[in-house]
Amino acid sequence: MTNQQIQDIAMRQSACDSSCRASDFLCPENKVVISASHPQARKYLDLPFLCDFTSYGHNIVASVSEDLCGCPRKLDNLTWCKMPVK
Questions:
Q1: Does the N terminus or the C terminus of the chain have fewer Cβ atoms within 10 A?
Q2: pTM greater than 0.85
Q3: How confident is the model over 22-43, as pLDDT tens digits?
Q4: What are the tens digits of pLDDT across the range 50-72?
Q5: CB under 8 Å, gap of 24 or more: what pairs does 22-29 form?
Q6: For residue 44, what is the DSSP state?
């Protein structure tokens, strides 16, 4: 197994945990997504998250509670998106 294959597996798992797409970790801009439970998320996680940050070096994906979405968005460089849970 190559390092790239290991990273791809890790990003797919993080995407399940963070309610986003694996490709979101490779975007040039930061992302904020609504945290939700996912059937393939790691079982020991207490989902949904209040606030969790994940990075693979390209950007930051913030998985946050829906309660935080009403907060003033002080960071203009964050892209807010809502992902459906599969």
A1: N
A2: no
A3: 999 999 999 989 999 999 999 9
A4: 899 999 998 999 999 888 776 54
A5: 24/59, 24/61, 25/54, 25/55, 25/56, 25/58, 25/59, 25/61, 26/56, 26/58, 26/59, 27/58, 27/59, 27/79, 28/58, 28/59, 29/59, 29/77, 29/78, 29/79
A6: T
